[in-house]
Amino acid sequence: MKVEAYFKDILKDRKVHLTLLDPEEQSPQEAVEIAQAAIAGGTDGIMLGGSTNDGSELDATAQALQENIDVPIVLFPGNITGVSKYADAIFFMSLLNSTNPYWIIGAQALGAPSVKKIGIEAIPMGYIVVEPGGTVGWVGDAKLIPRKKPDLAAAYAMAAEFMGMRMFYLEAGSGASQTIPPEMIAACKKYTSMSIVVGGGIQDGATAHKIAAAGADFVVTGTVVEKCSDVEEKIREIVEGIHQA
Ligand code: 1GP
Predict the structure, then answer these.
(1) What pLDDT is recorded for position 52?
(2) Distance from the CA of 47 to the center of ligand 1, in angstroms?
(3) How confident is the model at residue 212 (pLDDT cuts 50, 70, 90)?
(4) What is the DSSP letter of 89?
């Protein structure tokens, strides 16, 4: 089954948790160990990417994961170097609130031929960066959506849906001190029928629950597994919070 259909199938019953790994943060073998622990804790898929990516590290990590895990591996590209033939799919994203056309469509055009060539599934996704925004906000020249303006986020979501995108990612920035506000998630959910993805700064089950209860279909965590000693237990706590929503 294709990855998007696989996730849609899960969404009929419950919400989805994805674990984000940055190939630059650990060796391929360590990435496999973290992924296996996260899967044991209940994660539904592994996202691979970062704001600064080296293509060879990405390939090595994606290949090691493909040989050792069964859940979908989805690329989360930070630039044109974020493509690998060892993944199952790619979130083909446009940073809609960037002020720089490179991040809205330039990198996508440059990367599209390699996506076509390797033939992996491309899942169209609108992506916006909200305050505080972190590294991706800076790198992506984002005009950060103010936290107190849920309607602005919803306007971007509606535009993304009208342009044919099927997923919409609200990003607070990796390691953000504040997560996406629940009212903003609820507004995007209310005005569109896309799958809403939320990430940035989610570190515990209670927060994950709040995010999912507000309307997120996908909850993404990354940094938390880099910091904790028991990945399986931490992911289980987060996944339980999401499933209860
Ligand atoms: C970053 O939204 C993701 O793109 C995950 O953020 O690393 O804070 O979990 P964290």
Answers:
(1) 64
(2) 10
(3) very high
(4) E
Residue 98 is labelled as binding a ligand = no
Residue 177, both tokens: 């001190």
pLDDT digits (tens, 9 = 90+) for 1-32: 799 999 999 999 999 999 999 999 999 999 99
User: Residue 114 Cα, ligand 1 centroid: separation in angstroms?
Assistant: 26
Alpha carbon of 161 to ligand 1 centroid (Å): 23
Tokens, residue 44: 């539904």
CA nearest neighbour of 29 among 63, 64, 54: 64
Other C-beta atoms closer than 10 Å to the C-beta of 141 total 16
Nearest to 168 by CA among 210, 215, 204: 215
Give the ipTM of the model, two decimals please.
0.98
Residue 170 CB partners (closer than 8 Å, separation 6+): 128, 130, 153, 180, 184, 185, 188, 196, 197, 198, 199, 216
Q: pLDDT of 34-80, one tens digit each? A: 999 999 999 999 999 986 667 789 999 999 999 999 999 999 999 99
Res 90 pLDDT > 90: yes
Nearest ligand 1 atom to the CA of 172 is 2
Contact indicator for 80, 110 with CB cutoff of 8 Å:
yes
- Residue to mutate (ligand 1; options 93, 174, 227; most atoms within 8 A of CB): 174
Residue 197 in contact with residue 156, Cβ under 8 Å? no
Residue 172 alpha carbon to ligand 1 centre in Å: 8
| % of the chain surpassing 90 pLDDT | 95
Residues lining ligand 1, CB < 6 A?
A: 20, 171, 174-176, 199-202, 220-224
Nearest C-alpha to atom 4 of ligand 1 is from which residue? 174
